[in-house]
Amino acid sequence: MTAFPDVKQLLAEDRADGSIYSNSDLYDMEMDRIFMHNWIWVAHRSELPEPGQFITTFVGSHPVIVSRDRQGVVHVMLNRCRHRGATVCEQKHGKAASFVCPYHGWAYGLDGALRGVPHQDGYTGQLDKSKLPLVNLRVEEYNGLIFATFDKSIMSLEDWLGRAKPWIDLFMKQGAYWPIKTMGEHKFTFPGNWKIQLENTTDAYHFPIVHKPYLDSVDKETEDTFSFLDGEGYVEDLGHGHSVMVMIPDLVDLEEDLDRPIPMRFEKLAEDLSKDHTPQEVRRIVRAVGGTGFNLNLFPNLACSMAFFRVLRPLSVNETEIRHIAIGMDGGPAIANQARLRLHEHFQGPMGFGTPDDAEAWDRVQRGSLAGRDIPILLNRGIGHEAKRENGNLYSDVSAETGMRAAYRQWFADMTEENEA
């Protein structure tokens, strides 16, 4: 019998043992205690706009189907036939009336109910279809974000998101006058532990170093906008492992101060939009194209990162899958959505100036952390001047590691099955 690691020996408020990235027993604990017992993001509402539409994805290591049934209800079901365990759907997304296992033809409805079994008389009364649906997970939605969990007893999604909800609402304003929609994604893996990526989205400290090529690739006005390390930004602990990193405070609420000058890089877009839209509409659309000025981390697997979704999935203790999902305006101007895609590709794309550099840094953390023993990973940046707001949120300057400490507090609570500190 495997003895689980003593988590209390691995984490302090200001540091973590380097083995948290490479201990396979610890990883097994994480897959159970974190990914089986928390709300895990699985889809955005726009991916399932009509009855019959579905996507396939994962909750932790478990393949699932996310479907919208004929009544419009969203279901998240294990992608596993109740007969011999084969997956019943291999398509990434699509529209279907049912899911049929290719092995023996067992057929399931969009809600997972077992509808048909070929040659059922062979069971001579020993098979009750009503007791063999696809296994349904608990599902809840907030502002278009769909989450699922194996755990029927945990708190509601709204309670789990808690103080992160106002930030989700702010993030969704980048639809301008239209709802948010997903506009495609690219997926890649890196040879490192999932927590290295979890840390990265709340780490502004690395930006001017790792992303100097990006800063060199943009105009001076944009470079100044993204040189935020000495600015008025901040990182704030939102509870339950969630955090927000505000890099550009002027772009927290995209509907405020629309009379500010349009950035030089959007002047041509504004000119083109003005042919079909009022000046006020143009300003709001252009503001939305640029995205928000903050990264919102939702523990454990979703980041609403300025203008896209970043989704992580642990594959093993030292391999992680990342999806970058572009988002745009559902029904908005085509030229505005094209502009969003070009901005997305410039930084997050496979040939962009941002993500490839990030991925190399994550790879080097994984390999470097294997050197030596009993050498901690430091998590103490900004802790000396961390303060508390009236609502109890801890916050510090934009380069602080407050967001990482927030995530690790929830990690610790889950792993020790104690309440969050």
Descriptive key words:
single chain, 421 residues, alpha+beta, Rieske Iron-sulfur Protein, Naphthalene 1,2-dioxygenase Alpha Subunit, Chain A, domain 1, 9-stranded antiparallel beta sheet, 4-stranded antiparallel beta sheet, 22 strands, 25% helix, globular
Describe the structure.
With about 425 residues, this protein is an alpha+beta fold. The protein folds into two domains: about 40-140, Rieske Iron-sulfur Protein, CATH 2.102.10.10; about 160-415, Naphthalene 1,2-dioxygenase Alpha Subunit, Chain A, domain 1, CATH 3.90.380. It has twelve helices and 22 strands. It has helices at about 25-35, 155-160, 165-170, 195-200, 205-210, 210-215, 220-225, 265-275, 280-290, 335-345, 355-370, 400-415; strands at about 10, 15, 40-45, 55-60, 60-70, 75-80, 95, 100, 105-110, 115, 140, 145-150, 180-190, 235-240, 240-245, 295-300, 300-305, 310-315, 320-330, 375-380, 385-390, 395. The strands form five sheets. A nine-stranded antiparallel β-sheet has the order 13-19-18-17-16-15-14-22-21, with helices on both faces. The chain has a four-stranded antiparallel β-sheet with strand order 6-5-4-7, with no helix packed on it. α9 (about 280-290) packs parallel to α10. The protein is globular, with a radius of gyration of 23 Å. The model has no long low-confidence stretch (mean pLDDT about 95). This is Rieske (2Fe-2S) protein.
